[in-house]
Specification:
Blueprint (H helix, E strand, L loop, with lengths): L7 H15 L3 H8 L3 H13 L6 E5 L5 H8 L3 E6 L2 H5 L7 E3 L12 E7 L8 H11 E12 L5 H22 L2 H9 L7 H11 L1 E9 L4 E8 L6
Parallel strand pairs: 1-2, 1-4, 2-3, 4-5
Antiparallel strand pairs: 5-7, 6-7
Helix pairs in contact: 6-9, 7-8
Length: 233
């Protein structure tokens, strides 16, 4: 993968190929590189949905099913969706899994109670379409919880995080998995728009009460919102 971040359809192909390549060791690297903090973050994501047991929840860009397992432990009925055949082949969950695109979900309007997504917003080609598709398949009052990396606001934390994310992550990832992929992943944060723009996108797609929490001193963020009824024209 080149030093330039790919754009458009080149990004889609590059991301698909990358996740197919790193699937076998993806979970292990997540645990190592986050010092297992990602486990707690996923649990907080599911709790933040505040949905009753038995709710049908889509896990978009589900990867190997980490969030699916947390959803099942909470008594929900998850369905995982991912573009990567390699990730789905390496999945460790009993939840139903579907190979599909989060921008064109094979799901009826208003069919699900909740949606989660872990560390994939920056890999989506168009976030405005992603939020619109989430709103389409959620019932009114349904909830969304989107977990993603972030950059700390604190200057010292930001500097330390920059060294770790920009140097340590590619080094360890290169030793244990695919070097090019783990050079790309830290740089892909640049795809994320500023937080106010993210919040505006969510509101514009039909999510009320959109909010943001940060974890780990600001190295991860959780966006949540509720599917609001459409307003009369």
């Amino acid at each position: 993968m080149s030093t330039e971040l790919p754009q458009g359809e080149s990004k889609v192909r590059a991301v698909d190929d990358m996740f197919d390549a790193i699937a076998p060791r993806y979970d292990a690297l997540n645990r190592i590189l986050t010092l297992r903090m990602d486990v707690g973050w996923r649990k907080k994501t599911v709790r933040a949905l505040a949905l009753p047991p038995g709710s049908v929840v889509l896990d978009l860009a589900c990867g190997t099913g980490d969030l699916c397992r947390v959803l099942q432990d909470a008594g929900h009925r998850p369905v995982g969706v991912d573009r990567s055949a390699g990730m789905l082949a390496a999945a460790r969950t009993t939840a139903p899994l579907v190979r599909g695109d989060a921008l064109d979900l094979p799901v009826a309007d208003g069919a699900v109670d909740g949606i989660v997504c872990g560390f994939a917003l920056r890999n989506v080609l168009r976030l405005d379409l992603f939020f619109a598709e989430c709103a389409r398949v959620l019932r009114m009052g349904g909830r969304v919880g989107l977990l993603e990396v972030a950059v700390p606001d604190n200057r010292l934390l930001r500097a330390g995080h920059g060294v770790y994310f920009g140097k340590v992550v590619p080094f360890v990832g290169g030793l244990l998995s695919d070097r090019a992929a783990y050079r790309y992943l830290p740089r892909s944060v640049a795809y994320l728009p500023p937080v106010p723009e993210l919040m505006t996108m969510m509101a514009g797609a039909g999510f009320s009460g959109a909010s943001r929490r940060v974890f780990g001193g600001g190295i991860a963020q959780l966006l949540t919102g509720t599917r609001a009824p459409a307003t009369a024209a």
